[in-house]
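Researcher: Checking consistency across runs. Here is histidine kinase again:
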Amino acid sequence: MWNRPRFDLKVRLTLRVAAISAACFAAISAYFLVTADSAAHARIDGIAAIVAKTLELQQGKVQWVASPRSDFPNLDPVSAHVMTPGLCLGFRSPSGDMLQRFCSGAPAPASPPPQAFAAFYRSLFDPGREAARPVIVRGTKLGETVVSVDPAVQTAEAWHEAGRLMIALAIALPLLCALVYAALARALRPTRMIGNGLERIAAGDLTTRLPPFDLAELSAIRDVFNHLAESLDTALAERSELTRKLIALQDEERRHLARELHDEFGQSLAAIRALAASARQTAAQDCPGLLGECDSIARTATGMMETLRGALFRLRPPDVDELGLVASLEGLVSGWNGRSRGQTRYDIRFDGAFESVPASVSANLYRIVQEALTNAAKHAGATSVSLHLTMAESEIALAIEDDGRPNEAAVKSGMGLLGMRERVAALRGRLSFETGPHGSALRVSIPLAAADRQALEHAA
């Protein structure tokens, strides 16, 4: 399954705020540039209209004077009033010839605009575009006035306006991001507490509860979390009680079956052996040819009795309450060493004092170890199996490791591991089964608080 990359929520929201803010600043800058370009063209249009009107008045004055001196067009009077740096005034005849032209110099800008901005601005706004107004006297067009601004000057002015906004953006945007990140970190601080609570719930601590939060959304999550934890705690308690009863019923059924096998099947096998011995004595006197069959019947009955003893031992283990957990497990391991005949070595080690472990917990631990050893013998083909039982301050830990290569699917699909899981769940514990190239490991952890609770429930 494809895993999508995960990002910190604060970083993601801060980046979104930064992107929106940058877009707003860009829109404002674009608005200022458009406004500045429109104002520049409106100014040169106004200047062109003033120059055209001035030239029309000049031509009218020439016609009124009796002995006129033909100096039309004369841009000197108007240029003194309207000229600005980079501005050009001109008069173009109807034929297209430029009869007169004045341009004011433009000082070199202190901070010239970058070439990228200049190219971008020229591609959008076409600085230096001319504004022309016709000069019409008595219905006759004498020419037109032409007004323009040096493109470099107009670009530098636009960069000066945009540069101030960019400086403001460069200062305000990081400050805004820092403030937004700090505010989000403070507002989302309870999410870390929620995450820790979920981890504790996943670890099996269903007593975890979340405190009230200031934010309404987080408070809603807190209410759902606490309700879920309470529901899970109740459901797990009911499941544990049901599992405990089922396990107790299973153990009672095993004891009943063991009694039935011992009383009925065991006595029948004993009777068969006695009859075989009696038949052998009779055959020795009357029919020696039947001695082999009598001995075969006796051997078969003896083998069946040995098998029955093993089955009875598994169905009805020694009384853990009387012998104690340590002695019972040592006896179990010794029995497996005897049956393996040296093919597999079983070792057990204890750390801690187990005298205070409740009888019900000891019985469950014994059953778990018994089933684990059975799985190791059936599926692992191991040459060494080690058991380590530890009593810590807060829990009882059991580790069973072997050097075999089990069929993990066969082990997990069998009833043995399921039964162990149910017993561990009834004790509010944790069970894990791992396999690797060098063997497998079964680990069980049972909290002492759950063990005490199990003892009280069993006593009740």
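Researcher: Does this match what you'd expect to see?
Model: One thing to look at in this run: The chain has three domains: 9-186, 194-316, 320-460.
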